Amino acid sequence: MNHVAKQAFLSFLFPLLLISNVAWSIDITSVGNWPLTIGENDLINGAGSDLNSTYESTTYQVSLTISGTSGSWRVDVRKVNTNWHSDLHLWVRRTGDGSGGSVSNGSVYQELTDTDQPFFTGSDDVPGITAQLKLSGMSIQVPPDTYTATIYYTVVDI
After folding, report:
1. 17 lies in some domain
2. C-alpha distances out from residue 59 to 117, 128, 132, Å
3. 18 — phi, psi (to 5°)?
4. By three-state DSSP, how is residue 49 classified?
5. Mean pLDDT over residues 99-125, rounded?
């Protein structure tokens, strides 16, 4: 009799596990990159002078889409350096609200670190949220090289 009870319980539990996998799944999609090349044309006053210290991408360099929502959410952001110089700083700000739903915060530049930090919040599905990137700290003291970092956007259901 004890054996029958266990079978019934396991048979009942399995369908519940299948149903729980059908729950809402909030997704974020990002599109964009910034292949910035700094060269002699970026010297402030020609040969012998320093480089411009700050560079900004277009205001629509990154496009984010939030989908599969059932309420409020938050986007966190961080960067992972592949090859990076310690004098360089990467920043991000939200420049567009997208369409549908609502979006708030994130319109002021914030410096990216290797730790997730809140970027902006919103509710419902919102495609076409745009963002701009900024690089600061560039100078002739930074050795010529190919510096790369990856930005990670994470959506959190709140």
Report:
1. no
2. 21, 12, 5
3. -65, -40
4. coil
5. 97
